[in-house]
TrEMBL record:
Protein name in UniProt: Protease pro-enzyme activation domain-containing protein
Domain (Peptidase S53): residue spans on this chain: 230-641
Active site: residue positions: 299, 303, 560
Provenance organism: Rhodanobacter terrae
Family matches, as InterPro entries: Peptidase_S8/S53_dom_sf, S53_propep, Sedolisin_dom, Tripeptidyl-peptidase_I
Amino acid sequence: MLTNLHRKSLATSLALLLCGFASVSFAAGGSAPADPAPVDLGSSNPAQTVNVTLVLGLHHQDALEQYIYSTVTPGNPAYHRFLTTAQFADRYGATADEISRVKSFLKQQGLAQAELLPNHLAIKVSGTIGQFDTAFHTSIHDYRAGDGSTFHRPNAAPSVPAELAGTLVVASGLNSEARYRSHRVSALFPPQPGARTNALVKGAAAPATAPCTGNPTATCTPGEFTVGDVANRYNINPLYKAGVNGKGSTIGIATLANFLPADAYSYWSTIGLAVKPDRITQVHVDGGGPLGSAAGSGETSLDVEQSGGLAPWADIIVYDAPNTDAGFFDVFNQAVSDNKVDSLSVSWGSPEIFYFPQLNGGVDFTDELLAFHQVFLEAAAQGISMFATSGDSGAYDTVRALGGSLTDPVPPPLTADAPGSDPFITTAGGTTVPFSYAFSGGPTASIGKESVWGWDYISNYFQANFGVDITSEVFSVGGGGGVSVFWPLPRYQQFTFGTRRSEKNQTLFLPAFGIDYKLPANYRGRNEPDISLNADPEAGYSFVSSLDGAGLLTFEGGTSFVAPQLNGISALLTQSTGHRVGFWNPQVYFLQNIFGYGSWSPFNDIRAGDNWFYHGVPGYDQGAGIGTLNVRNLDLFLRSGF
């Protein structure tokens, strides 16, 4: 969401316009400056007990990746022969000898083993900070963040004990900093509940004038869209008419905040959607995530409401964990190791480059990316379809995370969001659908066709109609996308026209943190997103989160709506095909490369709009990926075995 500073400065400027000062020069307050570097408070209490997950390296990764591709390749003997967790552990997990050596090391250090996960990729342990300092040759310190919160993390890079070299990937949990944010965005000055306009935004999304037809739960009203409108736009209704409603499939939600399940049932009831009763199960990993508006409970609510609304008869398991590095890893690890869900989505993330040692005082967190990658590989081998968000900061992922602006001495770099940049997860991008709008009493304007989502169209509106430049206020809100500078271009994108390499002269300049980091140029990296759907909150959705406000909350959006929507769609496809869909990307890229676009294609090409850098063009682009879905057509291809 926009910060309060965003809203205050923009409100002041627009109020001047309304009072007749249309010629006044606009001095933007700009984005809130990045918080200063955390203050080192000294060594943490050595007697403090902490829980840490030791991530063990998998074996035969090349063979594992080949097996994953074979499970989604029609005609291959392994087609749809997904593994159980036990089979995965036996073929690719840590060996009995490696696990024995880790246990021996823990005993020597006085650390207590809490749990060996069934995939044999992680061991949960507990001990004191002093014990972990000794075990990993580091010094864990307390820090105070710019917002006043405190956390602990190593002040020097931990080292892997010699006896565990080649076995241990990372000790996750030595850092308790809240590092991830949800990808949910509110419209600029949305109307108050029950009102279509207010003093600053007039007719931001006009009510539909034609009768609303199609899905009975649809509103056909931008800003108040429901899952029924998603079904209308992306051709899901034929599946419902054929009796496909998610029955027999299980949706998984990975999240970093607890929520109130009653909110989801309230949403479905309010829009008139009949759903399977008592369908939600909660699993609180590592004690569970926090509950509250500021903690992000609304994100979890909308994830459940959107995915479960599109597949109303599917079961739902919500895995929530604390917002820490260990929590984020453990929530994936638990969900995938349980192997109860057929698809799993996450709407939290962080800029990929934030894991790099150049941004963490020399402490390398990229091992965490490798740890996530192992679990994503396991999910794909087990046939679990996974979806992540691409972010809501357009092509400049660090801007919303740090509060940068166009007026900084060095422009923000083009960056990708993690975990969406991982090549073994399907990443959700954002579009803007056709709608009409008018801001601040100005003339009505329209977006005529579905476009890559970027709020520069709002900036252009104020420039054209009032001579006011509000770019720094809306930059760089839009659908995330770009090129990874960590993960190489995956096999399924190598024959995709439109993929790009990383751009030159990209620098992250953060003097408050002592950071002046030049990103790798011309890197042939994984491109994201993969699939997009409507995400613009100006033409966005309603949802229920009683911790954020009463009743239906409207004009909400972000790619955090798209990832769970794809999750729900995958649940429908699971029922329709009679088996798990598995890893989407090799399948959808093959279909796009071979069959392209057209009336029988599973995809709609997005050829307009931009996310502040990447433009909608024919074929693949870094704003919308390979495009939006025609779900009926995708279902036909999957059921036919291509």
